[in-house]
Amino acid sequence: MVKVGVFGASGRVGKLLLEDLKQTPDMSVSTVYVRNSLDFSIDPSILVTSDMKAFLKGCDLVIDFSLPEACETLLEAAMKTPKPLVIGTTGLNTHQLNLLKDASEVMPVLYATNMSLGVALLNKLVYQASAALEGFDIEIVEMHHRHKKDAPSGTALTLSESAARGRGLDIEKVRVSGRDGNIGARTKDEISVMALRGGDIVGRHTVGFYNDGEFIELNHTATSRNTFSKGAIRAGAWLVGKEAGLYSIADCLEM
Ligand code: NAD
What we know:
By secondary structure, the protein is α/β, with parallel strands linked by helices. It has helices at 12-22, 52-57, 68-80, 94-103, 117-132, 154-167, 171-174, 226-239, 249-252; strands spanning 2-7, 27-33, 47-49, 61-64, 85-87, 108-111, 137-144, 175-176, 191-197, 203-211, 214-222, 245-247. It is built from 9 helices and 12 strands.
């Protein structure tokens, strides 16, 4: 039985993770990290704690869906008490991404801005399409619920990286995150990533390849957040027992 520590348990995805883990054979929640307290009841056998060390010591695997600053404290603490980490938090800054890489030198870390099978495949398709459709303009649009804090989504950024890799481009040099005013015509290599926010949209990503006379759009829509919690559980089951290293969802799905 793999004992799972849930980080971000009171969040939208975290709550589903707790529910989905109840239905998962060979895994059970052993610890939950909270800043203050939980506003819902939980099996009394689970350790609910704000002591990071006790949280980490009480589990064999951590699954995290929190916020970047919280994820940062988790990564720092895990350097002292290493555990396999599944990191789903998005919007990590350069410092936090470097911490994640440092952590992966001492423990297995699976980092995925999207835990869904469909988006893992979409990244592959985007890479292939980008390479094959030379000269097509690439534009990415993402839509999420009104509560989402980071923009553009981590998934959209990962998709833009896949598109840039397909063309041998450095995404940092070609990414455009908004257009406003008299900015001139679109340049050949730019890859734009636009974010829309509203309602309760779980997540929708469209990667378009536009040319004169034709265009193709690859679209993925998440209709339930369980896609992410179940994907993270599958990733965690795969990660336990692996050597230290930085893994992706594509590694886990052997894509
Ligand atoms: P949410 O705001 O509903 O939940 C955030 C959680 O983090 C809460 O439990 C909150 O208590 C906790 N938290 C915040 N600050 C904390 C701190 N300082 N210390 C400890 N805990 C803290 O968010 P959500 O919609 O559940 O999403 C969580 C994260 O997961 C976001 O970054 C989101 O973009 C990302 N996400 C990733 C995927 C994926 O597949 N990788 C899918 C959906 C969402």
